[in-house]
Structure formats: C-alpha cells, structure tokens
Amino acid sequence: MGQQKTASHRRYLRRVWPTWVIYLFVLLGSKWLLTELELAGVLRYLVALAPALPLVVVIVLVGQLMYGKEDEFQRALWAEAMLWGLAITLAATTVWGFLEIAGAPSIRLYWVFPFFTGAALICVPFLARKYT
Amino acid sequence: MKNKLKVLRAERDWTQAELAQRLQVSRQSVNAIESGKYDPSLPLAFRIARLFEEPIEAIFQDDRSDVDP
C-alpha cells in the first residue's frame, strides 16, 4: 500500500520476523519429536504445545503494535480490518463446524489464527480505499 | 463532519505530506480527514487547530443538527 513505516511498525517488524523463524524451527522440531519418538504423558503435551508459544508471542506483538501506533488513522484502519477479519473468521468457522456434522473434513483449531490473519490482511486495502 | 483543512492547507501552500509531517501523522490521515471520510480524535483536532491558529469550530463543522443544545 506504500504506507510509510512508523517507528513502532519498524520495531514490530524487527521482533516479528525472528519470532516467525523461531516458530518454524519449533514447529518442525515438535513434529519430528512427536512422530519419531515415543513420547507420552505430560512431555508429549509440552512438545505438542511448543509451536503455539511463538504464535502467542506474535499475537502479543500485534497488540503492542496496535497500542503503539503513533498514527490514529492507521490504528483505526487496522482495528477495523481486524474486526472484519474476526467477523469473517467467526462466520467461516461456525459454518464449517455445522458442515462437519454432514461429513466435511475436520479442520484443526490451530488454523483459526492464520485464517483470521489472512482475512484481516485482505480487508486492509479495501478499507484503505474506502477512507482515502 | 465537514472541515476546511484543505482550504487552510492551500492558503499556506503546503502539500498533504508537509501538513502530515507538521502534525506527525501519515499523509493518508490528512487525505482521509480532508475528504471527510475520517473524523480526527479530539487531541488531533486540537493539534490541527493550534497549527492553523484557529478555534476547532472554525475548522470543523458538525453537519448533524439533531442534538439540542
């Protein structure tokens, strides 16, 4: 969109990219451990849980970005995009939940966050066009 | 909400980018406010009023008259 990056946005990018890299490695490591080793009990749960932690950090970083945005219009725009993303995600997951009763393939809950992120990001250029 | 930000900016021969820099907001913000598609917060409206040395009500006009004084 050619938007000028503010200090808070640059700080966010400096933090979010390493977090995504960590997530990728933890995800691959977790998957390998769960398939190759006979883990059981609490340890199995902890290894399965590990990839979620970097994603929770990403959610916190997005929250910090929203609060730290110096530009109130940009903050309002992104907040509205997230609301639309939330509405799309709630509608899609509710519809899919009922379709699963009819035999549609079951989707893992960890897809909700990337779906929401994608839905919110798709809304940003539409809202930017609406307001400018 | 109507406003005369564009007129005030033109009087000073500022571009949207220059005004944005003076207000410490993005150019998109200035564009959205000028076109009346985004109403600024009260703190930003005060910053705009201070910059142009005019009272807020001289810059922003409420186009709704459904609230009794």
Summarize the structure.
With 132 residues, chain A is mostly helical. Chain A is built from five helices and no strands. In chain A, helix 1 runs antiparallel to helix 2 and helix 4 packs across helix 5.
Task: Note down, in words, how this protein is organized.
The complex is a heterodimer of chains A (132) and B (69). Chain A is an all-alpha fold. Chain A has helices spanning 7-36, 41-49, 52-68, 72-101, 112-131. In chain A, helix 1 (7-36) packs antiparallel against helix 2 and helix 1 (7-36) runs antiparallel to helix 3. The termini of chain A are close together. The mean pLDDT of chain A is 90. With 69 residues, chain B is mostly helical. Helix content of chain B is 55%, strand content 6%. In chain B, strands 1-2 form a two-stranded antiparallel ribbon. In chain B, helix 2 crosses helix 3. The interface between A and B is medium-sized, with 13 and 15 residues.
Structural descriptors:
heterodimer, A: 132 residues, mainly alpha, flat, B: 69 residues, two-stranded antiparallel ribbon, 5 helices
User: What is the C-alpha radius of gyration of chain B, as a whole number of Å?
Assistant: 12 Å
Taken as a percent bin, the fraction of beta residues of chain B is: 5-15%
Mean of residue pLDDT of chain B? 90
Percent of residues of chain A in helical segments? Answer: over 70%
Number of strands of chain B: 2
Which strand-content bin applies to the residues of chain A?
Answer: under 5%
Count every helix of chain B, treating DSSP H or I runs of 4 or more residues as helices.
Answer: 5
Name the poorly predicted regions of chain A.
none
Order of adjacent strands in the largest pleated sheet of chain B: 1-2
* Count of DSSP-assigned helices of chain A: 5
Radius of gyration of chain A: 18 Å
Secondary structure class of chain B reads: mainly alpha
Quick one: biggest sheet of chain A?
none
Structural class of chain A: mainly alpha
Give the ordered list of helices and strands of chain A: HHHHH
- Biggest interface in this structure? A-B, 13 and 15 residues
Helix content of chain B: 55-70%
| Secondary structure tally: strands of chain A | 0
Q: What does the overall shape of chain A look like? A: flat
How can the largest sheet of chain B be summarized? 2 strands, antiparallel
- SSE order of chain B in H/E notation? EHHHHHE
